[in-house]
Amino acid sequence: MTITHKALVLPEKLGKFIVADFPREAPGHGEILIKVQSAALNPVDWKIQKWDVLIDGYPAVLGSDIAGDVEEVGEGVTEFKKGDRVFGQAEFKKSRGAFQQYVVSSASTTSKIPPKYTYDEASTLPMALTTAYSGLYSKTGNGFGIEAPLTDSAVGKYAGIPIVILGGSSSVGQFTIQLAKLSGFSPIITTASVKNSDSLKTFGATHVLDRNLSADALREEISKITSKPIQYVYDSISFGPTQQIAFDILSPGGRVVYVLQPTVTATEDKQINFAFAALSTPHNAEIMPLFYHDHVYRFLENGWITPNRVEALPNGLAGAIEGLQRLEADQVSRLKLVARPQETA
């Protein structure tokens, strides 16, 4: 007998979302079944719907950010038990998106939620945090290839080295700022709407510059802040002109990270990297289980990273449809929209 639950389903290629019954999977070896309490929305969700990318077939359940309760553990899982509050990143598989009432996830890339955080808050973390962490610490080609701050000796290792983060108000940008601070980078220069200066400085940015500055103007402002070469630029937007600006402000010998497919061409003296959040990619498979399974709880508990601001959507999974339309229309700034699958009628 097939057990079903409610899910936000994309029934066909380039189709429209509907709330429908969907088969509930059982966890396999090394997996857990999560009762999803909160599922945050990401721009990639509407892009998959519009462009038919990243998904392995239809009907499909999208959504990347999961927070909820362990419902069942699979064979070999000893670190989790039924009722544990957990969060993690969903897989780009048609049956394993976050926008459903129950989802199977790998135990190795799941973390418990510290008591001080809600399900909604925890759901704002996974995909953006994975992207930020991967871009900073995965091997070159996908990230800067620097040492992650997982040991006492690695915390603060890059003290005195400047970093520029374009798009500091984005979810990825906020986590990149926080991780860069933990790694010791200074100054931490970011671009954003000036109205967000104070909040970004609480995350660790030392200087917030107007996001509308041209490459020449931005380079001039940076030169007033530091005389050191800019060897690290993280473009957390990577859309429109930002890729070229990021490349132009990079000093010879430097490294730039993009979160979308690069549209500029590397030169002999400037290295280009593409941070992709999928946990199944080889570069993320090397580093993300260790981070999520063994360290991210401590990062949260110590306040080294903090969740994004939240707007909870009404009407359970149905509310995610309008939320995705708002994301596509660029009507969401410095917060995460969160659907609550268990509130689905």
TrEMBL record:
Native source organism of the sequence: Psilocybe cubensis (Psychedelic mushroom)
Domain Enoyl reductase (ER) as annotated: residue spans: 15-339
Protein name: Enoyl reductase (ER) domain-containing protein
Superkingdom classification of source: Eukaryota
InterPro entries: ADH-like_C, ADH-like_N, ER, GroES-like_sf, NAD(P)-bd_dom_sf, Trans-enoyl_RdTase-like
Signal peptide: none
CDD domains reported for this sequence: enoyl_reductase_like
Entry-linked SMART domains: PKS_ER
GO MF annotation list: oxidoreductase activity, acting on NAD(P)H
